[in-house]
Amino acid sequence: MHTVSGRWKFGLFLSLVTAIMWGLLPIALKGLLVQMDAITVSWYRFASAGILVAIYLLAINKMPRWKQLKGKVGILCLIAVLALTINYVTYLFGLDLTTPSSAQVMIQTAPMMMLLGSLVIFKEQFSKIQWFGFSLFVIGLVLFFNLRLEEIIGSFNGYTLGLFWIFVAAVLWALYALIQKQLLNNFTSNQIMMMIYLASLPLLMPWSNLPQIVQLDTLGWLLLVFCCLNTLIAYGAFAESLAHWEASRVSAVIASAPLFTIFFMKIIEYLYPKYISSEPLNSISLIGAALVVIGSGITALSGNKKGA
């Protein structure tokens, strides 16, 4: 069983870095989608992350042993590759049709579905307080989208389709996370991510338009570089935080990412009003966003601490 270092302040710092980076990511991606399509953006993100992680693993002589990719392990790896690859693309499909704030709140269903999946697959159990946290999460979602409820329920327009794509992305991420939990018995997290990143490239290549990169303006280049580095920095900080702090506490802090997205969106909207449109929010929406974060935190913090 993994034992944390006890450096909780450093673990908290790394968790906040992850939450801030993931809070900024949909804002940067939304701007990048003006100049590049979703599949091409995903290809470049996977390529940059895969190459850099591979260089790191080669440097420390920790490359995965390919002989392990057989039987059940190989099948699980293939499913993980497909799940995370399609997750990246469908999330961008949804983001292109919605706003960064709504996308970030909606994607919080992913860890919730992973927890629900654990109930079925790993026979874990929810305590009463976890079900309370889950209920707060659901109520928070409804309140956050209160200004859009009639639009979402009454007509299947572009915004509704965008939320649907993000929900699909959340389901796929939960599937990937549950599989990764199994694969950690055979590989390290960096080895798993490298294999997924590199294996996704030939899958995305037929639908990618790689020459789009030469058409980017200065802002486009900056956004692309940020999105590529964000993948490495956020996941690196997340993985390292787990070495110093309990997973449940890390998850609770990372659940605050939607609040960072809303905060940064308001700043960008004020400074650069022509950049991207913000989600229409009222006081009920803000309360809903807070409940999504609180509900996620309660569910994570009240989990089984035996594996922490």
Notable features of this structure?
308 residues, mainly alpha, 13 helices, globular
How does this structure look, described?
With 308 residues, the chain is mostly helical. It is 74% helix and 0% strand. It is built from 13 helices and no strands. α11 packs antiparallel against α13.
SSE layout and pairings?
Blueprint: H1 8-32, H2 38-59, H3 71-97, H4 100-106, H5 109-121, H6 128-144, H7 149-154, H8 158-183, H9 189-204, H10 218-244, H11 247-254, H12 257-271, H13 283-301
Helix pairs in contact: 1-4, 1-10, 1-11, 1-12, 2-9, 2-10, 3-8, 3-9, 4-12, 5-8, 6-13, 11-13
Largest sheet: none
**Portion in helices:** over 70%
If you average the pLDDT, what whole number results? Answer: 86
Query: What's the count of strands?
Result: 0
- Rg value: 19 Å
What class do helices, strands and sheet pairing give? mainly alpha
- Enumerate the spans where pLDDT stays under 50 for 5 or more consecutive residues: none
Count of runs of 4 or more consecutive helical residues: 13
What percent strand?
under 5%
Q: Which geometry do the CA atoms define?
A: globular
Order of helices and strands: HHHHHHHHHHHHH
Distance, first to last CA = 8 Å
Give a quick precis of the structure.
This protein is mostly helical and 308 residues long. It has 13 helices and no strands. 74% of the residues lie in helices and 0% in strands.
